[in-house]
From TrEMBL:
Residues 55-168 form the AAA domain. Coiled coil: none annotated. It catalyses: L-tyrosyl-[protein] + ATP = O-phospho-L-tyrosyl-[protein] + ADP + H(+). It comes from Listeria fleischmannii FSL S10-1203. This is non-specific protein-tyrosine kinase.
């Protein structure tokens, strides 16, 4: 089974670079499905995860965020895959940012404006990980991260959060309390049906709102 090549991510950003292409239409369909799923209340924060690695979740995250931005929505894409961050491969422009770990480090005295990178001439903004932390769990379970996300909701119209695979670590479930909905990425011929069933059960227990994306 061929795996997603991180270094090839930047070549897969069709919604950002070719918004009128047939491939970009796929992500517009996902956006429409999210809106229909939450027709009674507008979703302003969305978590993206998958059962296991190499399911294409970061590719989906970037293209979906680009789709919202193309529609005039001020959109922030946050990399919360602290164990295996990928946005730097998809968007090299963000590599110089102190990122999430920088703003959460009180000794650096940084603001969102210091760490968030705007993609030139678009409504798309990106908050990368920054320096990979020694203890991802302590960050994801911190009140400070929750406060930051709530602050960012006041600045942006849509926040999309790329998180680690839900079957490998519980990071996505920790973060789900700050997102209004989740997308679970299942890859045809790759994602295990038993894993998918277990994810259904996990999300049911935490009463999280979610939809599926099958690629």
């Amino acid at each position: 089974m061929k795996k997603t090549d991180k270094k090839d991510l930047k070549n897969r950003l069709v919604a950002l670079h070719e918004p009128s292409s047939p491939q970009a239409e796929y992500f517009r369909t996902i956006k429409t499905n999210i809106e229909m799923m939450n027709i009674d209340s507008k979703v302003k924060s969305l978590l993206v995860t998958s059962p296991t690695q190499d399911s294409g979740k970061t590719m989906i995250s970037v293209n979906l965020a680009s789709t919202y931005a193309n529609d005039g929505v001020k959109t922030l894409l946050i990399d919360l895959d602290l164990r295996r961050p990928s946005l730097g491969f998809a968007m090299p422009i963000v590599k110089s940012s102190p990122g999430l770990t920088g703003i959460l480090d009180s000794s650096q005295n940084l603001t969102p404006e210091d760490v968030i990178v705007q993609v030139t001439d678009t409504n798309l903004y990106v908050l990368p990980v920054g320096v990979r932390p020694l203890s991802p769990y302590s960050i994801l379970n911190s009140a400070k991260l929750g406060q930051l996300i709530e602050q960012l909701k006041e600045i942006f119209d849509m926040i999309i959060i790329d998180t680690p695979p839900v079957m490998m670590v519980k990071d996505a479930l920790l973060v789900s309390k700050w997102a209004e909905a989740s997308i679970l990425i299942a890859r045809g011929g790759y994602s295990n049906k038993i894993d998918i069933k277990k994810i259904f059960e996990k999300y049911a227990r935490c009463k999280c709102k979610y939809t599926w994306c099958y690629i």
